[in-house]
Amino acid sequence: MATFISRSGFIPSTSHLISYYASFSTALMLLRNVYRELVPQKLEEYVLDKLRFLFFSKVSPSCCSFIIDDSWEFFDHNELIEAAARYLSNKIGIQNKKVRVGKFRKEQGLTTGLVPGEEIVDEFKGIKVTWLLVREKGDGADDDRKRNAEGNDNYFMLTFEEEHRDVILKDYFNHILDTHENMKKEKKVLKLFTRGGRGSVSKINFNHPATFETIAMDNDLKKSIIADLDKFLSRKDFYRRVGKTWKRGYLLYGPPGTGKSSLIAAMANHLKYNIYNLELGTVKSDIELRDMLLDTADKSIIVVEDIDCNQEVWNRDAQSSNFSRDYNIPKVSDCFLKTEAQTGDVKSSNFSDYKIPKFTLSTLLNCIDGLWSVCGEERIFVFTTNHKEILDPALLRPGRMDMHIHMSYCTTQGFRILASNYLEIKEHPLFEEIDDLIKCVDVTPAALAEELMRSDLPDDALRGVVDLLKQKRIERDTKEVERAKKMEK
Fold this sequence. Notes:
Layout: H1 14-38, H2 41-56, E1 63-68, H3 79-89, E2 99-102, E3 111-114, E4 119-124, E5 127-135, H4 141-150, E6 154-161, H5 165-187, E7 191-195, E8 201-205, H6 219-233, H7 236-242, E9 247-253, H8 260-271, E10 274-278, H9 286-294, E11 300-304, H10 321-327, H11 332-335, H12 340-343, H13 361-369, E12 379-385, H14 393-396, E13 403-406, H15 412-423, H16 431-440, H17 445-452, H18 458-488
Parallel strand pairs: 7-10, 9-12, 9-13, 10-11, 11-12
Antiparallel strand pairs: 1-6, 2-3, 4-5, 5-6, 7-8
Helix pairs in contact: 3-5, 15-17, 16-18
């Protein structure tokens, strides 16, 4: 056993060693308490950040560093610093012992972020990139307040081998910006705006659960709509190159209850676009219509439901009396001023009898596909109607309504989706009988969905569907007999 001997030859005993150790430990505890009392925590963090930055962030001569901050005096807000913060939030791992966590009003779920002094190592195309969040402090209180107000107190420094400089500038930063946009879409809380005349606006969160997986539509039609939307999103440069506004128009037509509103909700959820519902019936003039359409944001779906209810968009070339009578279309002269024979002395006539249009079709067309349409981009226009045939052809041509989607009565494929949604079943003995009945009668998805909701038991619910379809077949046969009798007379 080794023995401790001092220069004087004194060999301390075990009790002396224990006493020395206790005194030393007490002194250390006293010094620690004094340090905590005299040195503020913020000063400690500041010193540690500086030491870490000086000793652990040194780069070799072959490395290059970029700074991303928001201290550009003569420019707008630096979008790259926000994109970098969001991009790095997905790169935080278990090696980061300190992590910022927040919940923001316009986003779903939690968001994580770097703490000043923490590093993250990212890899892009085989290139190692080291990120460091640095907190820059001012010398005085006034300088600190100024930096906090401008949001310039933190900045990112990324370090990499200098030979990869061009790849970082051209490809890596574009990758960060694209990832940022996709992440914003995923966390975005959609909004539904309702806009009427005289600037009236209402806004609510849009939480409609409809998706392309849940709506009862023909699978081929569904796939074509999704493909068209995705193609639209990817063609920004194409629209700019050919000189067209980056927009797309869809006309949804068909009988009530065929899922037009659900399809709009599915489109919004797929694109992560807000919805602007325009109430044309409240518009009093062309100026109001123009202001209403111009007051919609980019990356949105602009919806006009039941557009056939607005006489201003009816077929101007329809001259057939039967057509006008069937759809109650007034003559052109009735839309403006009555004739002298109808009113007598014009001076004494009552101007309240005159029917003055609320807005003109030309203004609506100009806002959709004319000069006013360039005031926004990446927008989707969706019109719905129960009577496509009465709409003016000028409204329906490509460039305004690019894709016409017929929302038909329920098909066998559509019913399978409804059964899966409401009853959570894929197969059932009654499906074959239901398929045969659906092929010979007209029934809307809404009517079938209502019947499926009557019971949670698949047997009972499907038996109700069979009874509904049989009743509709009887009504169809009865109408055919009555029609045949009328023709005989």
